[in-house]
Amino acid sequence: MIKKILIANRGEIALRIIKTCNVLNIKSVSIYSDEDVNSLHVKKSHESYYVGNAPPAQSYLNQKKIIEVALSSGADAIHPGYGFLSENSDFAELCEKNNLIFIGPSSNSLKLCGDKMKCKKIMKDADVPTVPGSFDLVKDVETALDNANSIGYPVLLKSVFGGGGRGIRLVNNDNELRNAFELAAKESITAFGKSALLVEKFLPKIRHIEFQLARDQQSNTVHIFERECSIQRRHQKLIELSPSPVVNQKVRDEIGQLAINAVKAVEYSNLGTAEFLRLDDGTFYFIEINARLQVEHPVTELVSGLDLVKLQIDIANGENIPFKQSDLKLNGCAIECRINAESTFLDFAPSTGLVNDVILPSGPGIRTDTYLYPQCTVSPFYDSLIAKLNSWGQSFDQARKRMVNALIDFHILGIDTSISLYKVILNSKEFINGDLSTDFLDRFNILNRLKDSMKNETASKQDVALTAAALHSLLYNSKISNDHKQNTNWDHRMYGL
Amino acid sequence: MIKKILIANRGEIALRIIKTCNVLNIKSVSIYSDEDVNSLHVKKSHESYYVGNAPPAQSYLNQKKIIEVALSSGADAIHPGYGFLSENSDFAELCEKNNLIFIGPSSNSLKLCGDKMKCKKIMKDADVPTVPGSFDLVKDVETALDNANSIGYPVLLKSVFGGGGRGIRLVNNDNELRNAFELAAKESITAFGKSALLVEKFLPKIRHIEFQLARDQQSNTVHIFERECSIQRRHQKLIELSPSPVVNQKVRDEIGQLAINAVKAVEYSNLGTAEFLRLDDGTFYFIEINARLQVEHPVTELVSGLDLVKLQIDIANGENIPFKQSDLKLNGCAIECRINAESTFLDFAPSTGLVNDVILPSGPGIRTDTYLYPQCTVSPFYDSLIAKLNSWGQSFDQARKRMVNALIDFHILGIDTSISLYKVILNSKEFINGDLSTDFLDRFNILNRLKDSMKNETASKQDVALTAAALHSLLYNSKISNDHKQNTNWDHRMYGL
Amino acid sequence: MIEYKIEDVDMISHVDIVKQISNNEYIINIDNTEKNINVINISVDSMEFMLDNMYHSVKYIKKSSSKIELVADGIPIMLTTNNKLNDIVYKNSGGSVTNAQINLISQIPGKVIAVKVDENDKVKKGDLVCVLESMKMQVSVKSHKDGIVKKINIKTGSAVAKNDIIAEIE
Amino acid sequence: MIEYKIEDVDMISHVDIVKQISNNEYIINIDNTEKNINVINISVDSMEFMLDNMYHSVKYIKKSSSKIELVADGIPIMLTTNNKLNDIVYKNSGGSVTNAQINLISQIPGKVIAVKVDENDKVKKGDLVCVLESMKMQVSVKSHKDGIVKKINIKTGSAVAKNDIIAEIE
Asked: Is the Cβ–Cβ distance between B405 and A21 less than 8 Å?
């Protein structure tokens, strides 16, 4: 039985894990970099150890040091959170070698999930549909052309060394493909010593829908419903919800079973997520397994009633999942907004520094996971995610309205955040109608609407501003009247009297 | 359809009502006294009107002024919250006369619920069992003796003018009853001009269990499960939970039906609560109907998923309750702690004044309803309830542990609160075992345990205090060294160097 | 009357504080509509007030002679001013006051916190006569003409109503 | 070494700061057990530190010559002191230092922020010789005897190690 967990992470997720540890009477050990000496996860854990300088490579990615701290502190398990070392199979292996329980899948399973090509082939064998395209690296332009013609244009030419949208070319015909292939191969050889290209069907107006999965060491497997994460910006999720407006129980059962098949095929254990793309015609394609606790796990917690971190720990302890698929009932609707510290109109540049004041929203159906507190600082060294605002409602619309009001109540002074952007998205008729897609922001010109909305907000505050300005002239000056006695006659007199 | 609601209340319940108004796109109008000009309900509502001086009689009980404000602001309904005018049938009548919707039962129904003697007789006719005793005022000592002997000693001799435990005498035999009757009658005549006494069976070790009810104007009636509110201090509820550890589905169905019969008997409409006493042998006795939204309504919201304020407004709008009894499923367990501003060891005296700092607990399963914010003040003019901390869990134990950790995380600086007391109660084996009763605090010597627990806490912080004291001598003095240069040689030297 | 233009809003607005009702209450005129103001809190860089019974919180960021930057209910707003105040002051204290007028009249109610002249003192127009406190601000009352202080009707601590005669200057 | 008694706890404790490891790190000895201290933040009335890698936050409420009132992790604690510091200081600077000893020795490492005497100055025992900065605090180094400053080995800005000779006084 796990009695002490080292949390190899920081920020809100470290705090989230500490909360479950407290409920389970498990001691929590946190780690911190120079930058995080004043962070809440340091204060809220039972023990806390310094692991290195601010840059992640020297601290939160410093495998050797983290293992050292885990061993010397007497921890018997490591929870990696998300990001950092959470999907690093070497780290999982290092834990295994040191008899530390890595709260996540085995290193072998992690390796498999990380190798997207291999994973895609395994899915083919398991009859889990993937995005049409090549199953191997495309060695020459002729193979690429064959592939493209068999799946039909437009196609994407992708470098396996890319990621997050980089190294991807959209081509519409044989000619374009020939040109693009030559360029891409050259680039790849220059940069990585070899060409490693794929051809994949280009899919317009797609939704990102994922299934939360749990699999214990006895191979019992369940899905805990879907999350729709289509509201994104450059492949970064912004808003997630469950259920998806386009998933009914029939689809949930069907794709949920595919997701279960997918994790079985890679001999996965613990919690994970199977990500799918969904086309407008209702086709689902598997894309990958996220072999970790997801940022957006609270959405699933709110509609399932489960504590997913507890479930992770239980599974890591070798316990059976304590419920069957048929026991799970999707209850109401939950939405998450990832509050980022960023300046929307400075091309979403990170906004860092001192947070002068914070007031968290609360009340019926509202859950806020955050590491913010008044006078804390947001570091430029780490992720811009500063808070996860979740709302639950009996219906999508109740959850949505609760979220809108919680966004209004969420007061963060000192840095720019994505709160205003989310207000516009959540109030848009397209979001209300569930017309979501990964290009939602562009398709509906959301940034322009945000600009308009801000203009309207300014206009609505016109009388307030005018009043404040007039009172300022009247009352504020009086505050400094002692320094300015030599003014004109009746210098501080009121206008109308 | 209600479009604008005046909230005739203050504090957390005013804020709670505003939140639902916002979700329903209903404008909220708040009122405030001198004392509350800086209160959050003033800031968070759409409009806010001053209604009088700090004493409630001049402001929050100022019926004429409140009606005036409602009419002039264009409100079409008044939500009374709890306390203040919420169960005042005159006020409900005044609303009715002014064509303002009183969000609660009709003035007639309120009048009936307020007349405990009449109510008791109605319940007798409706076959709702009440505490054995006289159904009429006991005019003379002989009648009292008859009553006492027919229900059996010990009995309570109660003055109907009492309340909250005052004017109650416990008597064990005929002799004691004769003496007590004489004294009580004299007292009553001196104070109120007439004697108005009741004889009632004395019930030891009772639980307080109540059923949440909803009844629409079309007479559809449902109960929304029970709440156990046995943890009390001098008839003031401290901790509430749902479900009760001693209510299974069979009992819930049975007593729930009694509760439904009770509200039907007084032609109740809107939300209300039927309060019962439960004896150790499983007998339930109806005591009264609370004709308002209860302080502890969040407990029911958490296990039912409903928004009870919304349900109140829907019913006030003449709508049907949008679900049937059989649609309601009790989901998990919820606990509420009423955080009071009081000094436990100064006989629970109110603790008022400036709140230097507040950090609210949050996270999975935690809901905090409060009017506190950093630098706010707690007024001596009003209720000592400053926050309601609610936890939800799949099981009682998960809810309990989440509550314990949330109590630890709840940081209130500047005033004394009941948080420490609740930590002791929630960690006690008797609470864990569900061995609850209205005399829980006395029966288990909770105050002594709190003293012990505080001693243990002090002892556990011994090393911290010693370290702090030593560092203080070492480092703090150095901060003022500039002012104290004339000290002895090496005045600021370190000890061991 | 002050003229303001709000950046991003294509309109010039005219604002006038019409009168003070009580210590914290004012009537303000914005583009010919009267509104009630109730000031709740005021500090050097922020103000909270009710505008027609709606609560607002404003932080003052920067002020120059022609620009005011503030944050109204969390929304940053920039105002450009066309301040006609000086004209009005000039008109009232210069234009309409003739040299023959003896009485120095208080144009506001307030409490006397300092008397700066004695009877029979020689004063010049613009010399400080007394300081009043009104609406939590100090107001310097200056002589309306050159002359000799014949009579002082106030003393430190006394209350002054609007139109009370503060002093007689001949 | 300081002796403390915590109110409500029937035990007298002995605390000793054993050594400073780095700018914010110390080793402390509490009743014969050594513990690591890492000071995170310090202000006039509060301190945050790690004690054997556990975070603690302490607010100082009141201090008199024999009592310290503080709030440790939210828990109010009263300590009574039996401060033996003065004895030690007396022993070191009075008792054990003979008048014949010439060298004024630094008992701490630090940086010189001011030199208050010149060579050949006459000094009395207790006169200020220099000010060192160490661990964010200023330490006044005073003459250990009456005499004349024969040699000064330091200057403003220079570093001084423990046991370095600051000056020679004859």
From this structure: no
Query: B377 CB near a chain C CB, below 8 Å?
Result: no
* Mean pLDDT value of segment B396-403: 98
Residue B230: in which H helix or E strand, if any?
strand B221-233
Cα separation, A160 vs B304, whole angstroms: 49
The sign of the CA dihedral D110, D114, D120, D122 is: negative
**B228 in Cβ contact with B211 (< 8 Å):** no
Check residue A191 and give its pLDDT: 76
d(CA A39, CA B18): 34
pLDDT at A470: 87
**Cβ within 8 Å of A, B 383-402:** 394, 398, 401-402
Structural domains in chain C, sorted by start: 2-80 (no CATH), 101-169 (2.40.50.100)
| B129-145: burial string, b at 16+ Cβ within 10 Å, e else | ebbebbeeebeebebbb
**C38 close contact with B: CB closer than 8 A:** yes
Of the candidates A207, A227, A233, A292, the residue annotated as catalytic is: A292
Neighbours of chain D (3+ CB pairs under 8 A): A, B
What is the total residue count of chain B? 497
How many distinct helices (H) and strands (E) make up chain A? 18, 22
Q: Which residue of A has its CA nearest to B24?
A: A401
Does residue B458 register a pLDDT over 70?
A: yes
d(CA A397, CA A378): 33
A30 at D interface, C-beta within 8 A: no
Q: What integer is the mean pLDDT of B101-121?
A: 93
Which of B367, C42, B362, B469 lies closest to A478 in space, CA to CA? C42
Residue type present at position B328: L
CA distances from B426 to A41, B401, B417, B440, C36 (A): 25, 8, 16, 12, 51
Percent of chain C with pLDDT over 90: 28
**Residue A292 is a catalytic residue:** yes
Higher pLDDT: A488 or C47? It is: C47
What's the pLDDT score for residue A486?
A: 31
Contact B362 A360 (CB under 8 A): yes
Say if residues B113 and B282 touch (Cβ distance below 8 Å): no
Mean of pLDDT values over D5-16: 81
pLDDT of residue D106: 80
Residue C73 has pLDDT above 70, yes or no: yes
Contact B19 A307 (CB under 8 A): no
Search chain D and give the residue with CA nearest B496: D18
Please report which helix (H) or strand (E) contains residue B349, including its range: strand B349-350
Mean pLDDT to the nearest integer, A55-72: 97
Q: Is A16 on the interface with B (CB under 8 A)?
A: yes
Lowest-confidence segment of A89-93, B263-267, C165-169 by average pLDDT: C165-169
C-beta of residue D162 within 8 angstroms of C-beta of residue D168? no
Q: Which pair of structure tokens corresponds to residue D81?
A: 């002191």
DSSP character at residue B319: P
pLDDT of residue D8: 75
Is residue A493 pLDDT above 60, yes or no? Answer: no
**Least trusted range by pLDDT, from A107-116, B118-127, D107-116:** D107-116
Q: Does an interface of 3+ CB pairs under 8 Å exist between D and C?
A: no
- At residue A249, the 3 state secondary structure works out as helix
> CA–CA separation, C64 vs C80, rounded Å?
9
D41 in contact with chain B, both atoms CB, cutoff 8 A: no
Element (H, E) at C56: strand C54-63
* All partners of chain C with 3 or more CB pairs under 8 angstroms: A, B
Exposure string (b/e) for A147-160, b if CB count within 10 Å is 16 or more?
A: bbeebeeebbbbbb
Residue D139, min C-alpha distance to chain A (Å)? 28
Binned at pLDDT 50, 70 and 90, residue A388 comes out as: very high
